[in-house]
Design a protein that fits this description.
The chain contains 9 helices and 25 strands. The chain has helices spanning 16-32, 67-82, 103-115, 126-136, 159-172, 218-224, 342-355, 407-415, 430-433, and strands at 6-12, 40-44, 59-60, 89-90, 94-98, 120-124, 147-151, 155-157, 176-179, 183-188, 195-200, 203-212, 230-234, 240-245, 248-252, 254-257, 274-279, 283-284, 291-293, 297-304, 309-314, 317-318, 373-377, 384-388, 392-396. The longest helix is centred in the N-terminal third of the chain and has 17 residues, at 16-32. The protein is of the alpha+beta class and 447 residues long. The chain is globular. It has 2 domains: 1-90 and 155-229 and 381-447, FAD/NAD(P)-binding domain; 94-152 and 248-377, D-Amino Acid Oxidase, Chain A, domain 2, CATH 3.30.9. The structure holds flavin-adenine dinucleotide (FAD). Flavin-adenine dinucleotide is lined by residues 12-18, 43-46, 50-53, 55-59, 182-183, 213-217, 220, 252, 254, 372-373, 375, 395, 397, 399-403.
Length: 447
């Protein structure tokens, strides 16, 4: 495809957010008579699904302690459900099985799910939790858990296949997707704070609006736009805290136990929901019985034919470096720095065995292949969806975002003049105004 010299809308990044925004923008332009998909151009330095969206576990859940996140996720589940086949989406549901210290938080999640009509069941108490789980998996044996939130909606999608499904929808609507083009800077309009053109390694493209959907690379474009490296945050006590770094990275640890995914079928012979367990019982090694941890720990897993086994992960760890010094490239499984190691395999496989007897002694089937990747997080670990400069929309999902297929729809609607109540709680000025999202007792930075 020849390099265009202009495009009305330039979207940077062909991951979940760039593709979803482009598709919905194209449809919205056509429906409103304001243009067509040909006005929309996606640029990606590598290609479709080359970033976090192409390596994500693909879990789609509603289980968030923050009301604004829950509402947004419920909206996104609606988009996943709109075409499961195209998005390679498995609507198997999701289970959050929690330690006592999380029960109160999860109770409130359940109550609010009822309010927004999100289908779920909540079970409380040690014995009732065990019996609910045993009705599903006869070999359930996890301890240190006292509640189950069973979301009947949600599940998971096959990471790359879903991106190609989205790309097909965008291209069918007239969007152009150009791979192998790196954005290197911006030309600003003289006398205003708006972008006039996007500079790339293959030439300059004039545009009216820019959408930045860069996942772990968001900081590179943030810096190119001269946005602040540190920000001020108003605390709950009303005190202003200054000099808070805008970005930091966490490393996500995931892997696959290379056994037949069918072995994780439920008692009724059907494929199970995604399982997420947070336990406060000591986690012992399935290899030698030694204590791996006696602190709150968590894992998630699902049978996945795409990954070829039982796939899942554990708590991420913070990358203890200044964001300026973190090497995002080469990304994902090509990174020499951020891959999971034997400690992860030992912990995760032991935790699987802790939860279900069928996984005891299975660590030998753990797939010894590169996995994991880093995510770029905001100061409060929740997304920032907002306009910057006069004509740049930044989608910085703080690594929550594979499940958020609907954000692009809302962003497209906003760009076409329909402000979104669902996106409002994720504005950048929430930090200065002290309108932060509530924090849960989960061991994850994203729940
Ligand atoms: C290991 C792992 C597991 C995860 N599991 C889940 C999960 O189960 N559920 C969930 O909801 N979320 C999950 N996430 C988070 C989720 O994957 C991300 O939040 C989401 O995919 C980000 O999407 P994106 O479109 O913003 O960015 P990406 O998918 O990262 O896409 C960004 C694109 O920008 C391109 N790019 C970068 N720089 C430039 C440039 N200068 N010029 C042009 N193009 C550029 C890249 O090539 C890339 O294709 C996981 C993340 C990781 C790392």
């Amino acid at each position: 495809m020849a390099m265009p010299s202009s495009a009305k809308y330039v979207i940077i990044g062909a991951g979940i957010h760039g593709l979803s925004t482009a598709w919905h923008l194209a449809e919205g332009l056509k429906a409103s008579g304001k243009g067509s998909g040909e006005d929309v151009l996606i640029l990606d330095k590598s290609g479709i699904a080359a970033g976090a969206s192409g390596i994500a576990c693909g879990v789609v859940r509603n289980n968030y302690f923050q009301p604004a996140m829950r509402k947004l996720m419920a909206h996104s589940v609606g988009v996943w459900e709109s075409d499961p086949e195209a998005f390679s989406y498995h609507s198997v549901g999701y289970m959050q099985i929690s330690a006592e210290c999380m029960r109160e938080n999860v109770t409130s999640i359940y109550e609010q799910q009822k309010e927004i009509g999100y289908d779920s069941t909540f079970v409380e108490g040690t014995e009732d939790t065990a019996s609910y789980m045993k009705d599903i998996f006869s070999d359930w044996q996890a301890t240190g858990v006292t509640s189950v939130l069973h979301e009947k909606q949600g599940g998971y999608a096959n990471n790359t296949a879903a991106m190609y499904g989205l790309a097909t929808k965008a291209e069918n609507a007239g969007v152009r997707i150009m791979s192998g083009i790196t954005v290197t800077g911006f030309v600003m309009n003289s006398g205003s704070d708006s972008v006039k053109a996007v500079e790339t390694d293959k030439g300059v493209i004039e545009c009216e609006r820019v959408v930045v959907a860069l996942g772990p690379w968001v900081k590179t474009i943030w810096d190119m736009l001269d946005l602040p490296k540190t920000i001020e945050i108003k605390g709950a006590d009303g005190v202003m805290h200054s000099g808070i770094p805008m970005w930091r990275y966490w490393a996500l640890e995931e892997g696959t136990l290379g056994i037949d995914p069918n072995l994780q079928k439920m008692n009724n012979g059907k494929m199970p929901p995604v399982i997420h367990v947070d336990s406060d019982a000591p986690l012992l090694s399935d290899v030698d019985g030694s204590v791996i941890t006696d602190k709150l720990w968590g894992i998630y897993y699902k049978p996945d034919f795409n990954f070829g086994g039982i796939q899942g992960g554990a708590m991420p760890y913070p990358v203890e470096k200044d964001a300026d010094d973190v090497q995002v490239d080469p990304y994902g499984v090509d990174s020499p720095e951020f891959l999971v190691d034997d400690n992860f395999a030992h912990m995760w496989c032991s935790a699987l065995a802790f939860c279900q007897k069928r996984f005891e002694g299975q660590i030998k089937y753990y797939k010894n292949e590169p996995s994991g990747g880093i995510g770029c997080f905001t100061p409060d670990s929740f997304p920032v969806f907002d306009n910057f400069k006069d004509n740049v929309y930044i989608i910085a999902d703080s690594n929550h975002g594979y499940k958020m297929i609907g954000v692009g729809k809302l962003v497209a609607e906003e760009m076409l003049g329909q402000p979104s109540e669902l996106l409002k709680p994720f504005s950048f000025d929430r930090y200065a105004r002290g309108e932060l999202h509530p924090v849960s007792n989960s061991p994850y930075p994203w729940s």
